[in-house]
Specification:
mainly alpha, globular, transmembrane, transmembrane helix, AA/rel_permease1, Amino acid permease, L-amino acid transmembrane transporter activity
């Protein structure tokens, strides 16, 4: 059997897809953002509203993109959507930003945070932060070089493990919380209090990551049916969990204490509720959450490399587009992501680099959401869709406005970063035309 005949294994079912959505989104944000969202809003009621509104915007995003995903159920997600809707050039630009900068920087940022948590947890030297981060992504990458069922199973296991501390926090807060800070306002007024929009922005980032399941469209069973279910159900469950954790903590601690504790509020809650062991277990739960999020990203991002290589949109396309004949996974693409990520961890600030990508990435999200209207017009209103966005056109418009809020906020809060991200994506323009000419000439030589 030749490598060229090997295809992706369409073996991911609903439960695995659902676990990947939930597991990729829920990292550390829900555990550490409680105080910051409360400080920004100034009251627990507004904080809950911020988490709810951020969730509703994300749900509108998911409902909108599900219609596109059901019509274009191919490996590569956003790259494929942009290509089909706007053409080869814009598809390349969206993919280029992801594979060169966004994917390795976001994986490196999360892995670095995991390394930091682990050195603090075990009380070892900070020198080991980077080695631990690289070791973690290497082990997860190796797992995802095996058949995709292993990565999918790992997603289910880590998602179940991360849900345990979340459910414990919700149950304790609902039934045993006595402080009942719901309805309280902060007695100490922060300079940032009243900035409800910034609080919503923070929650939207905590909901981010669900779109990565679309990269696996070529490996999901009946993606035109299961992909919308996984996205919508996954986001809905995450909204409930995020609101439950927030409400549980507000039921158990006063607003003033949450404010004073900052990022340590959840750990203090766990220690106070379940004893010293509880705090340790929550820290372990957070690390498992991050590992699960890393697994989802390392499993999905290489599929963009693979999809772009299949269209000759990357250098070394033949090598990057090759699947392992035994595992039917893009091993070379995974190795490439691993190498780029490790290099970034050792040389640059991956947190800052991942932040620079937000402006451009969310701009592409808006373009994809607008694509719902384009596809409907292009299809002449024919009802050939297996999934249609409920509440059309209100829901897509809400998704566009909500995501537009993120883009505008980034432009005003980090103008230099926004310009830098545009500059990075601009570097792909000459590469696009070079590759187009190179592969065209290569094809001509082959014919001759």
């Amino acid at each position: 059997m030749k490598d060229e005949t090997v295809g992706l294994n369409r073996s991911i079912g609903l439960w695995s897809a659902l676990a990947l959505v939930i597991g990729t989104v829920i990292g550390s944000g829900i555990f550490f953002k409680q105080a910051s969202v409360l400080q920004l809003t100034g009251s627990t009621n507004l904080a809950l509203m911020a988490w709810l509104l951020g969730g509703l915007i994300t749900l509108a995003d998911g409902l909108t993109l599900s219609e596109i995903g059901a019509q274009i159920p191919h490996t590569g997600g956003l790259y494929q959507y942009m290509t089909h809707i706007y053409g080869e050039f814009w598809g390349f630009m969206s993919g280029w930003m992801q594979v060169i900068v966004y994917a390795p920087s976001i994986v490196g940022s999360i892995a670095g945070y995991l390394g930091l948590l682990m050195v603090n947890f075990f009380g070892i030297s900070g020198f080991w932060k980077a080695p631990i981060a690289i070791l973690a992504i290497t082990l997860i990458a190796v797992l995802n070089m095996l058949e995709n069922r292993y990565g999918a199973t790992f997603a289910i296991v880590t998602t179940i493990c991360k849900l345990l501390p979340i459910i414990a926090i919700v149950i304790f807060g609902l039934f045993f919380g006595h402080e009942n800070a719901v309805g309280e306002t902060l007695t100490t007024v922060h300079q940032s209090v009243g900035n409800f929009g910034v609080a919503v922005l923070a929650t939207i980032f905590a909901y981010d990551g669900w779109i990565l399941i679309t990269n696996l469209g070529g490996e999901i069973k009946h993606p035109e049916k299961l992909l919308p279910v996984a996205i919508i159900a996954g986001i809905s469950i995450i909204i409930i969990l995020y609101l439950g954790v927030t409400f549980g903590i507000f039921r158990s601690m006063s607003a003033t204490r949450i404010d004073a504790l900052g990022e340590n509020a959840t750990a203090y809650f766990a220690t106070n509720a379940f004893g010293p062991l509880g705090g340790r277990l929550v820290n372990i739960g957070i690390m498992v959450s991050i590992i699960g999020a890393l697994n989802g990203k390392i499993m999905s991002f290489p599929r963009i490399y693979y999809a772009m290589a299949a269209q000759h949109h990357l250098p070394f396309a033949k090598w990057l587009g090759r699947l392992n004949r035994h595992t039917q996974t893009p091993v070379n693409a995974t190795v490439t992501l691993l190498a780029l990520t490790a290099a970034m961890i050792l040389t640059i600030d991956t947190d800052r680099l991942s932040e620079l990508c937000i402006f451009v990435m969310y701009s592409f999200y808006i373009a994809a959401f607008v694509g719902v209207f384009i596809l409907r017009r292009r299809n002449g209103g024919k009802q050939t869709r297996l999934f249609s966005t409920p509440g059309y056109p209100v829901v897509p418009i809400f998704a566009i406005l909500g995501t537009g809020f993120v883009v505008v906020s980034e432009l005003f809060s980090d103008f230099v970063g926004a310009v830098a991200s545009i500059a990075v994506i601009g570097l792909g323009i000459p590469l696009f035309y070079y590759l187009k000419r190179y592969y065209h000439d290569a094809a001509t030589r082959d014919v001759d």
